[in-house]
Amino acid sequence: MAAATDDAGDSNEMIRVVSSDGEHFEMPEAAANLSLVLRHMIEDDCADAAGIPLAVVAAKPLAKIVDYCTKHAAKSSGLTIEEAEELKRFDAEFIEVDTDMLYDLLVAADFMGVEGLSKLAVQRTADLIKGKTPEQNRETFGIVNDFTPEEEEEICKENEWAFQITKPPSRLC
Amino acid sequence: NGPAASTPPATCEIPASTITSSGVSDRVLYSRMAEGKSENFKQRLNGVIVERKRPRIHLSDLHTDILSRIISLLPLKEAARTSVLSNHWKNIWCSQENLVPMNFKGFWNLQKLKLVYTNVSDEDMQTLVSNCKFLEYLGIINCGMLTRLRTSHPFNQLKHLQVESCTMLQEIELNFGLTKLEYEGPLIPLAPPGPLLMTNVWMKLSDMHAALEYIFTKLPSTLPRLEMLTVNCSELKRTTLPEKTVKFMYLKHLRLELTFCVRTRKADMFDFACLLEAAPLLETLELH
After folding, report:
1. Which three-class secondary structure string do you get for chain B?
2. pTM of the model as a whole
3. Predicted local confidence at residue B27, as pLDDT
4. What is the CATH number of domain A14-129?
5. Residue of A nearest to B25 (CA)
6. Is residue A55 less than 8 Å (CB to CB) from chain B?
């Protein structure tokens, strides 16, 4: 594959990676360097034509991660305000994924050591939790409630301040 | 450009057991295996593709570090509310260390703050105290990480400080406006910025020392305005004071809750005669 897109790194080399389910992907070295794990592998000369095997990252999330790293590596230093804005928009759109993909990205970004993506996914998860009832959060994230009703009530009581809903000031009628 | 191939087959997830030796961390392995146990996965193994109704993801399977990071981004109230989700989430919340969020601007109207069994670091405590400008009461109980407590911050309104069972605590730096101190633990240095206006002190000292001697020789110079003093401690020997000690000139009420460790010896009123000398205006003396 030609290195036409490689306008960021000082090397024109493309790095090949292989997903857990055997799919091959390519990205510029500068993009791969955003992953701590890949960077170490490249430094140790482990990046060969066969590709670096990523045994726990499936093709679907890996395709996303390659996208993310390629975009971010191409626009890494000396950003103009417009470019920074564009990158922000890219991130916002990029992370608009279903919870399954979000989970895969959380695990994969943590495993591959892609700090920016890890932050993005963690923030997105926090945003999804925000403003929901515990029951809604259990449903969204597949959390099994293993408390007895008594235990649950006890926790609510202990953290009463957190469960209180601030009422709007009542008006005198 | 872009990925060489981007359309993975829908049903070919390889289970974690095929992982090669390329430096897979246990945590990811664990997550994947936990996922493998899920109902959906079994259905796919049997070659039946069923439309999923429940989410496949189980956020609880994520490594504690990631969950902890997620919680730390939530507003404090919402973060606390995650403790009711399940036992696992409760444990994550309870072991949360960075309770003071980034860009913490303080609780502007907070007057009373009590921390019980809280892993709060010296720095976080400092940030809390210096950012809650209207704090009048601060209670710190069983906070095992704390080694040095500083309440001496300018503009500090703190009047009542309560410290109990903080085993690692080695020093407390008091603030100027403090009027009441309750302290339970071993005898540790109380470093004041200068003479204090404090009027009420309650102390339960856990180590066996000549606590009374210490109190009556060291404290009058820093607590000249003390009016009420309660001391609960064990005494091994009769208290003796050097003759020219600085006195508690305002002390009106002294309450001693003493345990004598030597059985053969009974409390003798004369044991405390020297204390009366050190507090010439004493009105009430209670002995328990």
Report:
1. CCCCCCCCCCCCCCCHHHCCCCCCCHHHHHHHHHHHCCHHHHHHHCCCCCCCCCCCCCHHHCCHHHHHHHHHCCCHHHHHHHHHCCHHHHHHHHCCCCCCCCCCCCCCCCCEEEEECCCCCHHHHHHHHHHCCCCCEEEEECCCCCCEEECCCCCCCCCEEEEECCCCCCEEECCCCCCEEEEEECCCCEECCCCCCCCEEEEEECCCCCHHHHHHHHHHHHCCCCCEEEEEEEECCCCCCCCCCCCCCCCCEEEEEEEECCCCCCCCHHHHHHHHHHCCCCCEEEEC
2. 0.55
3. 39
4. 3.30.710.10
5. A111
6. yes
